[in-house]
Structure formats: C-alpha cells, structure tokens
Design goal:
globular; alpha+beta; 647 residues; 22% strand
Length: 647
Amino acid sequence: MTTAGHHVQLVRDATFAHLDADGGINATRGTLPDGLFLRDARHLSRWQLTVDGKAPGILVPAEVQDDATAACVLTPPGTRDQPAAYTVFRQQSLSAGVFTEHVRLVSNRPEAMTAVLELVVDADFADLFELRADDRRYPKPDAERHSAATDTGVLFTYRRADWQSHTALTCRPAPDVTDAAQAAGPSTARVLRWNLPLEAHGQAELHLTVRAHPHGTAPQPPAAPRHSTSPASRTEAAPATDDLARACERGLADIDLLTISATGLDGETVHVPAAGIPWFLTLFGRDSLLTSYFLLPYRPDTAAATLSALAATQGRRHDAFSGEQPGRIVHETRHGELAHFRQVPYGRYYGAVDATPLFLVLLHAHYEATGDASLARRLENHARSAVEWMHTDGGLDTHGYLVYQPDPGGLVNQNWKDSEGAICFADGTQAEGPVAVCEAQGYAYDALLRTARLARDVWKDASLAERLDTTAAELRDRFHTDFWMPEADFPALALDGHGRRADALASDAGHLLWSGILDTPHAQRVGRRLLEPDFFSGWAIRTLAADQQPYHPLSYHRGSAWPHDNAVIALGLARYGLARELDTVTGGLVAAAAHHGHRLPEVIAGYDRATTPRPVPYPHSCSPQAWAAATPLALRTARERVRSAGG
C-alpha cells in the first residue's frame, strides 16, 4: 500500500527500499529517507527517470503488490487534443540485496519514433545513523567514493581505511551513453541514456538490476523459509472474517518480512525477528525477546533462534563505551560503517536493563511451552551468567533492584521507554541515576522464579533454586514497600538515584501484572486503573495518563500508545482474570489495526478515539515493526488463557 507522503516500502530478506510514488529515489534524509538499504547502509540514493528530457507525471502511483514488488504507471505531459506520446510502466522488485526494475515504454503514436530515456543513478553509502536527521554529520577521514562505467552499467565503490562497499548496476540492453551527472557538490552520480526506437504503437523494454555488496559480506542468502500466515493454535481459530484473525495473519506475514539471519551460539545460522523498518532491521535484545515470547505458542522455533543468537553475543568483559558487562544481554547490534569505526556505540550495544531478565524469562517459557529441555541445558552457563549479572553489575546486590546509569554517549534511559525524559516525575523532570524502573523489577522477579525452576527441574541444582526463590521473594516484598504509592493507589514509574519515587502514572505498571510481582488485590486495582479514560484512549492504553503535566499525545513515550506495551498488559490482565478489561484492550487494538490494513504500527498517537475517526499516526513510527506485528498473537493467547480459566 502507498504510505504517508506517497512513498512505498519494499521489504525482503533483510533488505528494504523506500521509493517515491513514481518509483524514484531522491537522496532524502530525516523521518523517511528513500533509497535501497542493506546492513545499515544506503546502497542506492538516486534513481530518477526522464523521457525526452522530462520527468513523466504519475498516472497510477506506485502500489505494493506483495511486500517486495511495486508497480506504477507514468506518462509525459499531454493535453486532451495532444495526448501523451508515451506511457511508462514500471515494475520494481526486491530480494536479498538485489533491487530490480522492468521498464516498459509504450508508444501511443501511429508513426515510428525514437524516445530518449535517461536514468540518473547514485549510491552515497550513507549510514542509517547519518540519515535520521538533516543536521547529523560524522567525520569520515580519507573516505573515497567513485563511480565507473562498465560494459553493462555502472559500478559504485566506497572505501574508508579497511571498510569497503560497492553497488553494481547492470542493464539489459546496455545504455548507449554513460556520463557523469551534473551536481552542485561532490557526486558520483551517473546519467545512463538509451535511444529507444519505437515502431508505430510499439514498445521497448529495459531490465535493470542493482546488487548491493556491503562491507565484509558475501551475496545475501534468503533470510528464512516463508511460513504459513495461519497461526496454529491449540484452540479453535476465530472465523476468517474476524478482525483479530486477520490481524494475526498480517502480523505473521510481517514477522516473515522482518526475519533476518544471525549467528547462533555454535556458529550456526539462525533466523530471528529484527525489530523494525526503517531504523531497526537488526537483532535487538528486548524487541526480539518479547516478539519471540508473543509468538511462543505458535512458532516456538523463533524463541530458540533468538535465545541462541543472544547467547552468542552475551557480554564477556567490561567496556564503558558499549556498556558491555559479563553476562549482560545485548540491546542491539549494528553492521554499519559508523559502528565499525566506533563513532557510535551500537555495533554491539548493551545499554538495556531489561534484556537480561527477559532472556531468562524466555528461556524458561520455551521449556515450559515445548517440554524440550535441550535448549535450557545448552544455555545453562549463559543463564547462570545472566543471573550473576543481575546480582552484580545489574544492581540487585548493591541497590536491591535492577538499575541503570544514564549513558550520555548512548541511551539516557535503558528500559523499553528509552527516549530522553521518558522516565520522569509527575512534573516532567527526568529521573537521575542510578534508576530502578518498575517493570524491570517485575521482569527480574519472574526471571528469578523461572530460573529457579530450571535449576530444580533441568540442571538438578536444588541449592541454586532455593537461593533464587529466596531472592525473588525478598525482591517482591521490597518492591511492594518501596514502589507502591498509597496516595495514588498505583506503583511508581521508577526510583531515582536518591530513592525518590518517580511519581508519573505510566503504563509500565501494567507489565507488573504480566510478571506477577504484585499480589492479586494490588494487581487487579492496577489493571482496572489502566482502563480509566485518562489512560485508555479507546484505541489503546497510553504510555502516560493524559491529565499529567508531561503528557503529550505525540511524544514517543510520554503520551503515545504502543501496541506491544498493551500486549504485555493484556497478558497480565489475563493472568489476574480481568476478562472485561482484556476485551476492552483487545477491541481497541483490533479496531486500530483494521484502519491500517490489519497491520499494527509500532506506535500511535495518544488522542482519544471519541475525537478522531481513525488512529492518529505517530510521525516516526516503524512499520512493520516486530513486537507490534506479534501483538495480535499475544492478544489471542491472552483471550485463550482467560477462556481456559473459565473467565
């Protein structure tokens, strides 16, 4: 489908492209940069077609046909009495590291003629981190970009020290002329020109193939076999006309689009869900773990692959630049130039307080769901290291809670609400570190209990199991004392470095229901509170209650609504038997998905449903995005759990 701003997006096999409505690429930056992207770099930055010296107008805008193919129809200017001389049919497709275009130029004239078709092409090899804002620049000493004509097209090359990338364009037929394009500044752009003879009402065709070759990689294989989009379930599936069923199908299809190859613990290739497009087509700790958890009843192999890939990247040493610590689970991995030269810390960045306990939660949940203990045995040492991290660098022994220190060179906040200012007091003041955010304590509690079960049942270590159970019980008691705000009858968002309660009323509290750290009376009060109008927009539960000073409906984490956040809350509502509240959340999210072709975006604005006929999009939202794609599956699981419990 055509996206906002008349762009289209193609996705396939860890490769994506953003194109204008006419199929062009214009080297844009900012919120939605266009181009061909692979491994955090833009391998095609200009792709501009003209016929007889003019850019044809749009007759039918580009429309995506199967997520990896788009087509549009163009025509040069004409009038009623002098209609356009040509019609241009463009079909563009994407596969692993390869962008192809078939151009069919059809003459509408009764006499023979020659058309001049030109294509301006360039590859700037820009890193994604450069493109996210117009004013973001990074020094690149001695970097060299070149382009050279070949017998069949153009070769674009980029070199900086030991970093080398190239992009190759081959054309059939070969262009008649290949010249340097005129540009205001330094450019490697080339103009390819074809003189195409056309018989009366005849046609000519071009076949163009662009192959991206990122640094240090062989040609990209397909990421993974395609799955069926029908979610397997132990219970009867909803009718085909049911919107939740459609959202589940769309979600599973999107997970396929976002599946990438990664290296597992023993060097094997595994297939894992990347976080989202355009900014996060890579392995993420928190995102990939929660996505895998949501998918667990339907695709348990995804959890096994994610756990193996994260075990392979688990921290081994202390590195202040990247946040690496022994036993810590990685937050994100990057493959781009800036990460390679450590100009950004994200090559392997460990700035997440919650990925490590979530790793332990998923490891036990996989064993619980499948009954197969082999993965838990294989990852025993990694699980023990993760537990050790929670006690040491994670802060349990020193602070009594999992804590993080804001990272001025990386992420100021290191929970899922990782934007600056997201962890705040009711007056909007950012909490200072070390910060103990509430949901991470719930994850830690659940991780301790679940790992105790693995220790007892799989590893046959009763002593470890007893210690972990005791630690979990003490954490739960401490949490109720320190986090619960009697005056608000609600848990604090966080404790700051001075032990003060960050008293903003936030959706994070709903995650405490999922983890089970709250007793039943407190949990049920929280669950019901989250469905009050200041929290629930009619579409979803907002990240902050709307009557607070820092609330902003278009803020990333201070008033918007996130489907995955609501999915975690929904699983918690099911845990405590809050069936009515679960139905309300499910209904809002399913209705929101129906307005987006049954695809849930990463995040929507916090405006009330009563004031907007459809969900207001958040302007920087990823789509598709993995944990949003998996949200309908989590909603289905939550409903099934309530039904099986007689709710």
